[in-house]
Write a structure and sequence with these properties.
Blueprint lengths: L29 H16 L7 H7 L6 H10 L3 H16 L14 E2 L1 H8 L3 H10 L5 E2 L6 E4 L15
Helix pairs in contact: 1-2, 2-4, 5-6
Length: 164
C-alpha cells in the first residue's frame, strides 16, 4: 500500500482462520457500520454507483482504534498519506479486469438504503412499505439483512387520479 508493506499476520491478524460454527453469523458493531456508511458516502461523492475497495480503505483513514490504529502507530501513517496511498493503489488496480464470468453485473438487488435513494424517499418509509407488504423484499438466508429487487421498485407507484 504505497510506501508501506502491511503484513497483517505480523500484527496478529489470522485472516485465513474460519470462524467457529457458532460464530459464523456476521454481526457488525456500531463502529463497523459507521465505517461502512462513511465508505458509502465516499462512493456517492465519487459518483460511483457501487462501493469499491478504495472507498472502504479511504473510510478507514480517520480510524485511530483497532487494526487501523495499530497500522497508523506502527508505520506512522497519517490520514493524508493513507488517502494518497489508496489513490495510487486504486490507479494500479483499475487496470486489472475480472476473468470472464466474474465481471460485476448490474445490481438486481438493492439494500433498503439504495432502494430508498432510488425512490427519493426516507429509508424508514421504505421499510414501512416492506413491513406493510406494499413492497416485496427478500431476506438473505439466515441473516437479518433484506434486499429489494430493482424490478419491484416500479410496483410501488400508483396512478394519480385527479380529484374532480
Amino acid at each position: 500500500m504505497g510506501q508501506w508493506t502491511l503484513d497483517l499476520e505480523a500484527l496478529g491478524v489470522d485472516w485465513m482462520e474460519l470462524p467457529a460454527k457458532s460464530e459464523a453469523k456476521v454481526s457488525y458493531s456500531d463502529a463497523v457500520v459507521g465505517i461502512l456508511d462513511r465508505a458509502a458516502g465516499i462512493a456517492r461523492a465519487d459518483g460511483s454507483s457501487d462501493m469499491r475497495l478504495e472507498h472502504l480503505l479511504v473510510a478507514f483513514s480517520n480510524e485511530e482504534s483497532g487494526l487501523m490504529g495499530k497500522l497508523k502507530r506502527k508505520f506512522q501513517i497519517d490520514g493524508p498519506a493513507w488517502r494518497a496511498a489508496v489513490a495510487e493503489a486504486s490507479r494500479t488496480f483499475s487496470n486489472v479486469t475480472a476473468p470472464p464470468g466474474l465481471a460485476p453485473q448490474g445490481h438486481d438487488y438493492l439494500t433498503p438504503e439504495e432502494a430508498a435513494e432510488c425512490l427519493s424517499i426516507h429509508v424508514q418509509t421504505l421499510r414501512a412499505y416492506v413491513r406493510s407488504g406494499k413492497l416485496p423484499a427478500l431476506r438473505l438466508a439466515g441473516e437479518r439483512a433484506i434486499r429489494i429487487r430493482r424490478a419491484d421498485l416500479d410496483r410501488i407507484f400508483e396512478p394519480v387520479v385527479p380529484e374532480i
